Automatic annotation (TrEMBL):
Cofactor: Zn(2+)
Coiled coil: none
GO molecular function, one term: metal ion binding
Species per Swiss-Prot/TrEMBL record: Vreelandella sulfidaeris
Residue ranges of domain Alcohol dehydrogenase-like C-terminal in the record: 45-113
Record's protein name: Alcohol dehydrogenase-like C-terminal domain-containing protein
Pfam family, one: ADH_zinc_N
Entry keyword set: Metal-binding, Zinc
Length: 258
């Protein structure tokens, strides 16, 4: 338990309890130094906080990779250069934007729910058959209902792109969740590029005091990531809209009745 100062709003506290520390952990694990270029794969709430945190740690350029335009728009608001993998190949784009070198650091904020590209250059160059086999192996029972949650159809896609898009001797931070049975990782490519890997679950207690300091100093406002606010009786409908990844539903706040 951590006592929050009265100056921390409820909206800020919501983000500080989990998604902000996780994003900061991902940026910290990426070993970001002043001026580094950083690729963040996945622009959900955790990925957005990874972008914020990379900037706080001194990153010179941050590239945000996703396919959802609302998430990319939010990433751009936070100062990232955005790449829609349904429109352009993220690896080729990262290399082009870094003079053919690749980024210094990469953060996988997606995990097992990664999607492969369905359109454009990235779709043409992807190994869709292998990705589909991985999906069947790692999520054989989906328990889906209508248009609600669907598992990712490219479980290792973010990892593949991250490793390919990194510069030699770069660092890959993995905070996206993978199940114990997941075994697909491009170890050969990572080893031959002398990459450093850091991954794991966030030790929230370690980071929250630092994030409180940054918030009180007006270096960051965690509440900016919240995109929806609904009353508790609307919780079911809110969860369903979030599950469908409807436009604008990135992080949802549920308000208790007063």
């Amino acid at each position: 338990m951590i006592k929050l100062p009265d100056e921390i709003s409820d909206d800020q506290a919501i983000a500080m309890s989990d998604i902000f520390p996780t994003g900061y952990f991902g940026a910290d694990a990426a070993e970001i130094k002043d001026g580094d270029s950083v690729a963040v794969f996945g622009c959900g709430a955790v990925g957005l906080f990874a972008i914020v945190s990379a900037k706080l740690l001194g990153a010179g350029r941050v590239f945000a990779i996703d396919s959802k335009q609302d998430r990319l728009d939010k990433a751009r608001e936070l100062g990232a250069e955005v790449i829609n993998y349904e429109r352009e190949d993220p690896v080729e784009t990262l290399k082009r934007l870094t003079g053919g070198i690749g980024t210094d650091r990469a953060i996988d904020a997606v995990g097992i729910d990664a999607q492969h590209a369905h359109h454009g250059e990235a779709a043409e160059s992807g190994d869709i058959q292998t990705q589909e086999q991985e999906a069947r192996s790692n999520a054989p029972d989906t328990n889906t209902s209508g248009d609600l949650w669907q598992p990712g159809d490219g479980p290792s896609q973010a990892l593949q792109w991250a490793v390919e898009g990194l510069a030699k001797a770069g660092t890959l931070s993995i905070i996206g969740v993978y199940p114990p049975q997941f075994r697909a990782f491009p170890i050969g490519a990572a080893m031959n590029k002398n990459l450093t890997l850091h991954m794991g679950n966030c030790p929230h207690r370690k980071y929250i005091p630092k994030l409180i300091e940054l918030t009180l100093a007006n270096k960051v406002d965690p509440a900016k990531i919240l995109t929806q606010s609904h009353k508790m009786p609307d919780a079911l409908q809110a969860f369903e809209a979030f599950d469908r990844r409807e436009n604008g539903w990135i992080k949802v706040e549920l308000l208790p009745q007063t």
